[in-house]
Structures are given as structure tokens and as C-alpha cells.
């Protein structure tokens, strides 16, 4: 079992922009300094890490893989007893797949997810496809990444393939790991009308913001969104596929929130960032009201700023929002500052290769701790023992990694993996232990 999840992540975006691969792991020096990055995680007191192998370097073709880097890094995570929340697809696909307009992607990705879970049977937590709505928006509608399309049809096509890939991956991972839990990391958005003439446009966007999670959780959309999907390339059979795959009981709804997540909509269709108006607690209430699921704050950050206190103040604000969400009875299980180190070129959404270092990390790119890292470490120390004892605490049935397990097992690597997998197969009638459902001793109304 585990109490509240304090997490961070290694930024591993890898979209293509105009045929150029943007690899944040490479830009941030992770391939060279991955051991030090994991040490930084432990120095903060964090036991959960959003992390995944670079898909374009690992997945070489159908059934063809280069697992060397994944084998090294995941062995070290297990040794350090850091539980990864495995991020299998983060804004890009290998060159041989092309982009998210490729209808073969979901079934191919299903096999990749199953093969990963079979190779690393000790891993329990997954985000199969990261920020499906944002990826479809940036790739299919805004023309920024990957296919660089600028149409509603491009958006819907990318979205249905991304969500179908996520659903198929969840099903595939549950085969070798029946107690796997899936923490969706999705951007929580809101669109504010700047004038009465913009109300209808804003309302349309406020319905579309839910589409990725509606499809992922098998939730029926309203008539406006059904017509929107059908008019832009989704078929009735595709829609019913999502309705018939209900995997909510294996999921935690991860919501990301940045100062850029709220938007101002104008009557001519323009959209601008509005800055924080509602804030994380109000947006989370809206998403929870819709899906009635356990929640996790899966991403936030802010540039450190000239005084060094800007990021610290944002962290405290987001943490106060998390406590507010928890105190009103919404089952929230975790919080994430993203990422462990600074990032590069996110000020242009990775579209421009300038090498601009964005001071967003708990550590800088020399792996020196920032003020926000010190602040996060203190929050973890102060609250880790308090939150599990508070009312409305949610209990996740987590099977934390134990590096000594593989040493005890002996035998060949394949034999050790097979034995580990067998230990986690749910037996008929057994509803206890780590393979049981997500449980809560307290939130009113459940989820």
C-alpha cells in the first residue's frame, strides 16, 4: 500500500517538427547524466517518477526493439526503489510509423505496450499515452508538431488514434500485469469568452476539452460533440469501440495544470492565454464532477524567475489547491512537479531549436538544486506522514519495487521475469492484496 504520491518526471518529449526530431532527453543531457538524475530524485525524497524510454530509439519496427537503455535505466530505478509511472508515448512516434494520422498506429502500439510490460513485469504504474488532447491539438489542428495539420479533421483523426492506442495499451498491459494502474496525464483546460459574441465558440471548446477522456473512459458525448466527431472522420464503429471499453476501475485521472491552461476566446475565433483565473481546484472539480474518479495532479511548473521565488510561490499555490481539492472530499492521490531538471526550448513549444534553457526544474542542468527543489523537499518532509492519517485518504494498492527480488530469484533473466509475472496474476475469487481494485476508506459518494 502507499500513502500520498509525491512525484516528479524526466521530460521525455520527442515530437518531430518539420521532419526534425526534437528529443528533450538529449537536449537536457539525460542520456549522459541519467544516473545523476535518478540520484536527484532520491535527494528530494521522491519515490515516484514519471519516466519512459525514448520510443524512437527503442521501438525499431514491428517486433523489433533496442532495450539496452531501458534495461539499464529501469534496473537502476528498481535498485533505488523508485516506482516509475511509465510514459510509453510522449508526443511522438518512431519515423517508421510516420505520425498520428496513421491508422495502423494503435494496433502496433498495443504490441509495443504488451512487450514492454512483459519485459518489465515489476512495473505497475503506466501513462501509456501522454496528454492525448494536447498532442492531437498541436499535431492535427495547430500545425505545430508531427503531421502539422491545421484542420478539425486532422485533430479528430489524431485524437481517435491516440485514444484508441491508449485503450489498447491498457488492455495489453493488464495481460501480464493484472494489477496495473493507469494514471492518465491530461491537460485540464478552460476557455473564457471575452465577449457575448464569443460565448458559443468558447462553449464549443469547453466541450471539446473533454473528448480525450470521454473516449478513454467510455463516456457518451453530447449531441454537439457526436456530430463534431462524425463530421470530422470518426465512424459509428469507432465511437462504439470506445463506449464498449470501460477500464475506469484501473485508472486514476491525472490532470495537468499550468498558468497557460486557461484561455481567452474572441469572437473572431482567436485564442490567447488568459493566465490563471479559476485555478487548479476549480478545474479539477469540473473534471471530477464529470468522471467521478480518483485524481492526481500530474504536471505543473513555472520558470524560476529573476528573484528565484516565482517558482516557489507557484509550488505553494498549487499545493494549496491540492489540499483544497482533498479537503472538499475529492479523492486526490498525488502531486507532481514536472520535471526533475530544467527543460530546453519549451518557451517555443519545442518549435524553435534555439537551445534556450527554461528554468523549470527542481534542479538546473548542472544538476544543482533550485529553490523550488528545496521547497518541494520540505513539503514532502512535512506532509508525507500527515496526509495518510487525514480523513478522505485514498489508498492505492501499490506493489513498490524491490531491487533484491531479482537477486533472490536466481536463474536466467527470462526465468526471473516469468516468475515475477506469475506472482502478480490475479487468481479467481481473490479480491485482496495488490491485485484488488482501487480502494478508499472515506470520500463521500465514492467515485
Automatic annotation (TrEMBL):
UniProt region (Disordered), positions on chain: 401-447
Annotated signal peptide: none
Pfam families on file: Glyco_hydro_1 (PF00232)
Domain of life: Bacteria
Broad class of enzyme this protein falls into: oxidoreductase
EC number: 1.1.1.133
MF term (GO), any: dTDP-4-dehydrorhamnose reductase activity
Keywords, in A-Z order: Oxidoreductase
Gene3D superfamilies hit by this protein: Glycosidases
Biased composition (Basic and acidic residues): 407-417
Regions of compositional bias (Low complexity) in chain numbering: 430-439
GO BP annotation list: carbohydrate metabolic process
InterPro entries: GH, Glyco_hydro_1
Composition bias type Basic residues, residue spans: 418-429
Entry protein name: dTDP-4-dehydrorhamnose reductase
Organism annotation: Rubellimicrobium mesophilum DSM 19309
Amino acid at each position: 500500500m502507499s500513502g500520498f504520491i509525491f512525484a516528479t518526471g524526466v521530460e521525455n518529449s520527442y515530437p518531430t517538427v518539420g521532419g526534425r526530431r526534437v528529443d528533450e532527453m538529449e537536449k537536457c543531457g539525460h542520456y549522459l547524466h541519467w544516473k545523476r538524475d535518478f540520484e536527484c530524485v532520491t535527494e528530494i525524497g521522491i519515490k515516484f517518477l514519471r519516466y519512459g524510454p525514448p520510443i524512437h530509439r527503442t521501438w525499431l519496427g514491428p517486433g523489433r526493439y533496442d532495450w539496452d537503455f531501458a534495461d539499464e535505466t529501469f534496473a537502476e530505478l528498481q535498485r533505488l526503489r523508485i516506482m516509475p509511472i511509465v510514459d510509453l508515448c510522449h508526443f511522438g512516434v518512431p519515423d517508421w510509423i510516420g505520425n498520428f494520422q496513421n491508422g495502423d498506429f494503435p494496433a502496433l502500439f498495443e504490441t509495443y505496450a504488451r512487450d514492454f510490460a512483459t519485459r518489465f513485469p515489476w512495473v505497475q504504474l503506466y501513462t501509456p499515452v501522454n496528454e492525448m488532447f494536447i498532442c492531437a491539438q498541436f499535431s492535427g489542428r495547430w500545425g505545430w508538431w508531427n503531421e502539422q495539420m491545421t484542420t478539425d479533421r486532422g485533430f479528430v483523426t489524431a485524437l481517435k488514434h491516440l485514444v484508441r492506442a491508449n485503450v489498447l495499451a491498457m488492455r495489453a498491459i493488464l495481460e501480464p500485469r493484472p494489477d496495473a494502474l493507469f494514471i492518465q496525464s491530461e491537460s485540464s483546460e478552460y476557455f473564457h469568452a471575452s465577449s457575448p459574441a464569443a460565448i458559443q465558440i468558447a462553449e464549443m471548446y469547453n466541450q471539446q476539452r473533454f473528448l480525450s477522456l470521454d473516449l478513454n473512459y467510455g463516456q457518451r458525448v453530447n449531441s454537439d460533440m457526436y456530430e463534431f466527431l462524425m463530421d470530422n472522420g470518426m465512424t459509428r464503429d469507432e465511437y462504439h469501440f470506445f463506449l464498449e471499453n470501460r477500464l475506469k476501475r484501473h485508472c486514476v485521472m491525472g490532470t495537468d495544470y499550468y498558468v497557460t491552461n486557461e484561455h481567452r476566446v474572441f469572437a473572431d475565433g482567436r485564442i490567447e492565454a488568459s493566465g490563471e483565473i479559476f485555478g487548479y481546484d476549480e478545474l479539477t472539480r469540473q473534471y471530477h464532477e464529470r468522471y467521478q474518479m480518483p485524481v492526481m495532479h500530474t504536471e505543473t511548473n513555472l520558470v524560476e524567475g529573476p528573484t528565484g521565488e516565482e517558482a516557489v510561490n507557484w509550488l505553494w499555490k498549487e499545493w494549496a489547491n491540492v489540499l483544497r481539492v482533498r479537503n472538499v472530499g475529492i479523492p486526490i492521490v498525488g502531486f507532481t512537479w514536472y520535471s526533475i531538471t530544467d527543460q530546453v526550448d519549451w518557451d517555443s513549444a519545442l518549435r524553435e531549436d534555439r537551445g534556450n534553457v527554461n528554468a523549470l526544474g527542481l534542479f538546473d542542468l548542472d544538476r544543482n538544486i533550485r529553490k523550488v527543489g528545496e521547497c518541494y523537499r520540505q513539503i514532502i518532509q512535512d506532509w508525507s506522514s500527515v496526509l495518510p492519517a487525514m480523513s478522505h485518504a485514498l489508498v492505492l494498492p501499490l506493489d513498490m519495487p524491490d531491487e533484491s527480488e531479482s537477486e533472490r530469484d536466481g536463474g536466467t533473466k527470462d526465468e526471473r521475469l516469468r516468475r515475477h509475472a506469475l506472482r502478480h496474476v490475479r487468481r479467481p475469487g481473490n479480491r485482496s492484496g495488490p491485485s484488488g481494485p482501487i480502494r478508499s476508506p472515506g470520500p463521500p459518494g465514492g467515485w
